[in-house]
Design brief:
By secondary structure, the chain is of the alpha/beta class. The chain is built from 2 helices and 7 strands, in the order αβββββαββ. The chain is globular.
């Protein structure tokens, strides 16, 4: 009977320690407010690691298609998109290939650091989009 009460007391002590430490962790995270990223305009370059995602395409009866995403520093989009409902602006940008040559180019660069020149960008709005922003017109910049 003593061991049962010991376990209950130990559980309460653990919960009390957890709740006491939680405000400290939250305070440390909120000490430095994040600044919005710099504005991205047509012709600017995004740099980061390219990754490939497999998503189901609603237009092709749920067929799995490769989608490519670049993770970069936070960037603000020009109005009316602004920050895409984020404090700092989007960090992940989905690259939409417009032809087979662009798709093949992205496939060969998957997992590598790349730079792309952005010609047209907007906030993600559809449920199937995996990134925070969508780059519809772009070109790879040679390093």
């Amino acid at each position: 009977m003593t061991t049962h009460r010991f376990g209950v007391r130990l559980g309460f002590a653990f919960l009390a320690a957890t709740f006491a430490a939680a405000p400290c962790a939250i305070a440390q995270q909120s000490d430095a407010p994040q600044k919005p990223g710099k504005m991205i305009r047509a012709g600017d370059v995004l740099s980061g690691e390219l990754s490939a995602l497999k998503v189901r395409d609603a237009k092709n009866r749920g067929k799995r298609v490769a989608t490519y995403q670049i993770t970069s520093e936070p960037r603000r989009l020009p109005p009316p998109n602004g920050l895409c409902n984020l404090e700092t602006g989007p960090e992940t940008f989905q690259l939409i290939p417009t032809n087979d040559a662009q798709a093949a180019q992205l496939k060969s660069l998957t997992g590598k650091e790349i730079s792309v020149k952005v010609d047209e960008v907007a906030c993600a709005q559809d449920a199937g989009q995996m990134s925070e922003a969508i780059v519809t017109k772009w070109s790879v910049v040679a390093k």
